[in-house]
Amino acid sequence: MPLLLALVFLAMLIGAAWWHMLPLAIVGLYLLLSLCTFIAYAFDKSAARKGRWRTKESTLHLMSLLGGWPGALFAQHLLRHKSVKAAFRQLFWLTVVTNLALLGYGIQTGFMDRLI
Fold first, then answer.
1. Which residue stretches of the chain have pLDDT < 70?
2. Among residues 63, 45, 62, which one has the least CA distance to residue 54?
3. pTM
4. Which of 2, 15, 22, 93 has the most CB atoms around its CB within 10 Å?
C-alpha cells in the first residue's frame, strides 16, 4: 500500500504540472530528492550489513521532509530497510504529512509559482 501511495503521489504531481497547476521543476525536484533518498537508504543498509559508519536517522528524516519521501518508501519496501522500527516509522510518517501539508499550502497560496 505505501508504494501505491508514492506512485499515486508522483502521478498526481506530473498531472498537476501537465495542467499548469505546479511548475515542472517541482516534479523534477521531488524525483531528484526521491532518488537521492533511495540511494542514502541503500548506502545505510549496506553500511549496516558491513558494520560501517551509518547515516544518521535525522538525515534520512530530513531528506524525506524535503520531498524525498517517495524514494524512502521505495527503499523501505524494496531494501527492507528502516521498515520495522516503530519510532523511526512514526517520525517518517510525520515528515510525509508535513511535506504534503507544505506542498498543499505552497500550491494554494501560489508560493510554488513564485518559487521557481
1. 113, 115-116
2. 45
3. 0.90
4. 22
